[in-house]
Every structure is written in structure tokens, then in C-alpha cells.
Amino acid sequence: MQRSITGFHRDEEQHWVAVLECGHFQHVRHNPPWQERYWVTTEDGRGSRLGHRLACRKCDAGAPPDTV
Q1: 3-class secondary structure, 46
Q2: What is the per-residue pLDDT across 16-56, written as a single tens digit (0 to 9) for each?
Q3: What is the Cβ-side half-sphere exposure of residue 55, based on CA atoms within 13 angstroms?
Q4: How far are the Cα atoms of 12, 18, 28 from residue 15, in angstroms, in the given order?
Q5: What is the 3 state secondary structure string of 56-67?
Q6: Sign of the four-CA dihedral 31, 8, 27, 49
Q7: Cα separation of 19 and 50, whole Å?
Q8: Region label for 23, one of left (φ > 0), alpha (ψ between -120 and 50) or beta (otherwise)
Q9: Which residues contact 63 (CB under 8 A, 6 or more apart)?
Q10: DSSP class of residue 37?
């Protein structure tokens, strides 16, 4: 199910995590060459992705919202 990004935070290992409109969290790592997400490395880049939709596998599975 596609859900919009509403914000970002870092996890305990300082990796960026997208907060989705459904309340689920999803890692958005920049880990070349496997994951090219250069936009996550800057505040402007992350801001440009607010509203962008990601596939939420947790919604597909019927999981409850995540908590910090």
C-alpha cells in the first residue's frame, strides 16, 4: 500500500527513518552502490521528499503503528 512521507527521524544507529502517514516507520538509507538515496543526506533533500509515497509493507501486513 502506498503511503506518504510526513517526516523523518534517526534510529539508534543514526540511520534515517521515514515516518509515513499511516504511523509506520521505514528506513531510507543511502548505502551505495546498493541503495542510492543521496537526498537523505541533507535537510533540503529530506524536505523535498515530504509527501512522496513509499510502499508500506507493514500496512499490507495489517501491523499496528510504530512507536519511537
Answers
A1: helix
A2: 999 999 999 999 988 777 888 889 999 999 999 999 999 99
A3: 3
A4: 8, 10, 8
A5: CHHHHCCCCCCC
A6: negative
A7: 10
A8: left
A9: 24
A10: -
Q: Are 20 and 4 in contact (CB under 8 A)?
A: yes
Q: Is 68 helix (H, G, I), strand (E, B) or coil?
A: coil
pTM greater than the 0.85 cutoff: yes
Phi, psi values for residue 32, rounded to 5°: -60, 150
Phi/psi region, residue 65 (left: phi>0; alpha: psi -120 to 50; beta: rest), is beta
Q: d(Cα 48, Cα 66) in Å, to the nearest integer?
A: 23
Q: Which residues contact 56 (CB under 8 A, 6 or more apart)?
A: 1, 2, 3, 20, 22, 24, 26
36: Cα within 13 Å, side-chain hemisphere: 1
Domain boundaries, given as residue ranges, for the chain: 2-60
Identity at 9, one-letter amino acid code: H
